[in-house]
Amino acid sequence: MSWLKETIGTEKAIIAMCHMQAMPGDPGYDAERGMDWVVEKAYHDLSALQDGGVDAVMFSNEFSLPYLTKVDTATVAAMATVIGELKRHIRIPFGVNVLWDGEKTIDLAKACGADFVREIYSGVYASDFGLWNTDYGRVARHRRNINAQDVKLIFNILPEAAKYLSDRDIVETARTTVFNCKPDAICVSGLTAGAETDTQVLAKVKKAVPNTVVLANTGCRPDTIESQLAIADGAVVGTTFKVDGKFENEVDEERVKAFMEVVRNFRKQTVA
Predict the structure, then answer these.
(1) In this predicted model, what pLDDT tens digit does every residue of 91-143 receive, in sequence order?
(2) Coil, strand, or helix at residue 232?
(3) Burial of 3: CB neighbours in 10 Å, binned 0-12, 13-18, 19+
(4) Domain spanning 3-270 has what CATH number?
(5) Which end of the chain is more exposed for a tag (fewer CB within 10 A), N or C?
(6) Domain boundaries of the chain, sorted by first residue
């Protein structure tokens, strides 16, 4: 039994993304509508995801584009405000992701009582947002210092919009990441949010680290989720749940229900 069963309540878990709107300080922040609107939009999506039957939810500042690797305090404070406003409505396990700052992600998780986090915690990358050195040794010590060892860490080792500055393949990267960093799970992604995760890559990673939870991180749809879950231990799902399957839209509860029906049928056949 993996920690997914213990923490989220099921194997082959579906972690749904609740994408927060742009925050104060972000280029796309809507100052006229303000933070009340950001909270309102997050509440709508949280309600649709929960009522649609997902297993867990993860809050992220997805619309804080372009992302920072050292996120401003204002962003973390705004995310904490949103989650604080929503906390009484959260009925399922939840996680957080402060894009692209692993340390502040852990800080937010500890402050708001999240069960897990996702970020790019290992490696050095060339990205659309500049050169990115994750420096996980320092992050791991910070996690210890704030007593956040109970927060599960999901490592994205194939991040969107970035390329590993090494000629090692993903199998070697997965193996050394597990050995050196001890992640609770590894995520495998497509090139951008909504881009399908390559099942061949998923299979290679899972074979390389059979005792570590491996999640499909992008591009899971009703017509692909069974093939993804046949390999991966679970999936992180965002764009598929939105109106017309478009990243910029709000969550459509009916799309969530239809997707989760496929997942439930798959689990009945495969999960003991």
Answers:
(1) 999 999 999 999 999 999 999 999 999 999 999 999 999 998 999 999 999 99
(2) coil
(3) middle
(4) 3.20.20.390
(5) C
(6) 3-270
